[in-house]
Amino acid sequence: MEKKLIIFDLDGTLCDSLEDLTDAVNHMRGEFGLGALTTEQVRQLVGEGAANLVKGALPGKSPAELRRGLETFIAYNTAHIADKTTLYPGVRETISILQEQGRQMAVVSNKAESLCRRLLTALQLDHYFIDIVGGDTLPFRKPYPDPLLKVINGAGIPAGETVMVGDSIHDLKAGKAAAVTTIACLYGYGNDSEIRSADMFIDSFSRLLELPI
Known about the structure:
Blueprint: E1 5-8, E2 15-16, H1 18-31, H2 39-43, H3 50-57, H4 63-79, E3 86-87, H5 91-100, E4 104-108, H6 113-122, E5 131-133, H7 146-155, E6 162-166, H8 169-177, E7 181-185, E8 200-202
Parallel strand pairs: 1-4, 1-6, 4-5, 6-7, 7-8
Antiparallel strand pairs: 2-3
Helix pairs in contact: 1-4, 3-4
């Protein structure tokens, strides 16, 4: 059955934003007199939204300090949303072909919706998507299926004709909970061992065009 709706994760799937996220984290840590983290350390904190990222980057801090850290992180990340962020190879070309094929496409991320929209606009990719759902759009984010179901219901396309493309276990859990086909990106931020439950795999974005979807 041809998949008419393709839902993408953002960071680690469509774009590599790890350096900008690392800069934002280290700016925030600097405000607390803490040393810098490596991109690999930040990669391990990414995927569950900014609040969890900040909590992991500021261990042992009080709730008030974490709130201040989150404000600092978001302010810096907003101002530097795409200083170093780039699309993965083949993303723009593949997205264009999928659009020409008549596929509907959307983005579901655990990043705040305003940051998702700002980043997609900066990357000149926003016009391809019928919906952009962030981690704060609904009460529940991935791995809950709610964000995917919002897109599916809004598009009026059955779950059986939908795929979720992402690089993390949260994408796969949300996809399976929403009863859609899941595709794992092996090139992203997620650990390979955690995403082996996907229905299909791609080692580069353009490989999407080779899958039986």
